[in-house]
């Protein structure tokens, strides 16, 4: 769990796989620092994309994200937490639930937070709400409620919220895609209202709809770009000045941090 050691001294690594309250604006550096004597507990939270549907290994972005993190530092250890398992990692845990909406996740999140006590939660959810014809206003309220429950469960948890890659096939998906784009437009305000412990990751800036193998779930390349985006947005919270990056940027066109991870 989060402690009092200086954030600038935190070094992060992940074991390699085998195959709340809201508040006024503040910078991440002013938040309670992470405890370098403990495991960093990371909870991937979402739907079938978090589960890894459409990826060759079933790990989705989680496998590549683990590799990015382990390539950076070899001192601090992180672990995935959650009630679900999928993929080929030695630690395959997460809270990815195929078909679930934001409201479905909210109904269970307090229990999961109490059970697994994550230090960081990676939220990527909403496409199923859109596919079930939820309005943008409903999705906005649901996300605000989910974030409120996460923050209320832990005074120190950090949350990164990914916006949604618009789906692209069929009449239903055309409607869902339009809803997703409207939701993405208001999501920054939802994140800002949640307070300084919540930040935004612009998945839609890194992953194009062309990288959705079935029109809904990313292919392996799309998941690799998602992993990189999570890491680019997580690293400033975990490494001195956020200057250390893992691996080689896989994005075909360089994307500025300010575009992927707006403050």
Automatic annotation (TrEMBL):
Sample GO molecular function, one term: phosphatidylcholine lysophospholipase activity
Domain SGNH hydrolase-type esterase: 45-224
Keywords carried by this UniProt record: Signal
Region forming the signal peptide: 1-26
InterPro entries given in the database record: Ester_Hydrolysis_Enzymes, SGNH_hydro, SGNH_hydro_sf
Gene3D superfamilies: SGNH hydrolase (3.40.50.1110)
Protein name: SGNH hydrolase-type esterase domain-containing protein
Organism whose genome encodes this protein: Kitasatospora cheerisanensis KCTC 2395
